[in-house]
Amino acid sequence: MTIESPVRRLLPLSDLLLFVVAMVWGSSYGVVKTALAFYPVLALLALRFGITFCLLAVHLRHLRHASAATLRGVFVLGLLLLSIFLAETFGVLHTRAANAAFLISLCVVLTPLVEWALLRRRPGAAEWLAVGVSFAGAWLLAGDGTLSFDFNAGDGLILAAAVLRALAVCVTKRVLRAAPLPALTVTAVQAGVVASGSTAIAWVFAPSQWQSLPTLAGHGMFWGSVLYLVCACTLFAFFAQNYAIGRSSPTRVSLLMGSEPAFGAIFASVWLGEHVSMAGWIGGGMIVAASLMATVQWRGVFVARPGQA
């Protein structure tokens, strides 16, 4: 007879990790905003992912016996991550926050379609229903009656980021299925590509981005933000995401990660003092409910498995 936690009975470890990642990434917007008050975008990306790469470089040893196809695959994953960060960051600069929040949430809608096309897995009816509920919740949370689309370059970049997010989840699944690698090894490669890519882009196109690092003395807020971004939002979050993708379907991963805006709204309200309307709270609740709808093993609430007490 075994004893299992009620939470673990309902949600496997990979799903629980993704919920925590959604919470962490939801809080990251305010933290990044704080850090950007001290340091430019590309330089901050290079610093954040450069530190991450140095911490994880030892895990690159697992690539020694990898095939050329596997090496190409993990490098493509790094390029996808770099493209996502660039599209999101510069997209937000050229569009309204409400538009950006709604457009990036389209990743949840796009992932089942990309998974169907790329991995030949047709999402189930419950997953499609959850996608629809999540989409409606994102409209309420991001809209608040203020969404307006005179489609511009910023909107296009955010939409591109949503497509890239959906593609990245499915490509990661495909790469890990073809040649399983430790999640930390994949994270190390991604961090290295983002750090070097951000450095190269800044060096060639925006040399003004390179500034002296803030000193430790008198800039505790900046370095605290960087520490949180490296440890929680990068090391833990990307490890957990890569770990979960190898053990779940891209649609499930996307639905769980799609709860990020809801946790972001909670953080913005509690920590930053930003106003969230009643419609926004309802939308956030719908997003979280959609994640639970498609992932929680509800049968486990009422039916005990053999050998359980």
Description:
With 309 residues, the protein is mostly helical. Helices cover 74% and strands 0% of the residues. The protein has one domain. The termini are close together. Residues 1-8 and 298-309 have low confidence and may be disordered.
Topology readout:
Elements: H1 6-10, H2 13-36, H3 41-56, H4 68-93, H5 97-104, H6 106-119, H7 125-143, H8 153-178, H9 183-205, H10 220-245, H11 250-257, H12 260-270, H13 278-295, H14 299-302
Helix pairs in contact: 2-10, 2-11, 2-12, 3-9, 3-10, 4-8, 4-9, 5-7, 5-8, 6-7, 6-8, 6-11, 7-13, 9-10, 11-13, 12-13
Could you give a short account of the major beta sheet? Answer: none
Rounded mean pLDDT score: 77
Strand portion: under 5%
Q: Cα-atom Rg, whole angstroms?
A: 20 Å
The unreliable regions are: 1-8, 298-309
Characterize the overall form. Answer: globular
Task: Spell out the helices and strands N to C.
Answer: HHHHHHHHHHHHHH
What is the helix content?
over 70%
Instruction: Tally the structural domains.
Output: 1
Total count of strands: 0
Briefly characterize the structure.
With 309 residues, this protein is mostly helical.
